Amino acid sequence: ISNLCGKWVIQQSGTDATLYGIHFINRKIGWAITTSPHIILHTVNGGTTWVITDTIAGDGHWGNLGLCDIYFLTQDTGWIANGAILMTTDGGISWDTVSYPDRHYE
Fold this sequence. Notes:
The chain contains no helices and 10 strands.
């Protein structure tokens, strides 16, 4: 869905999977993520068209992660989060697991 001159317009993502997270860094450039299967989508025209940039198999590099949120700081640097934190510095072409301390707060 996009807001074109104050009106909502339905956009096609190119997948039947449910979108769980979406983030735009400006009016044109954005990413979306689905779960089951895990698909990362990218747009450079405000959502008019989407390109699948990555598909993550449940038994592959990231295992059975319940990925459900995506955030980009710049066109190159972004994160995916839920069961793990994954980071890209090349616009989503490749993703690496981010280590973080295992701390429990009471």
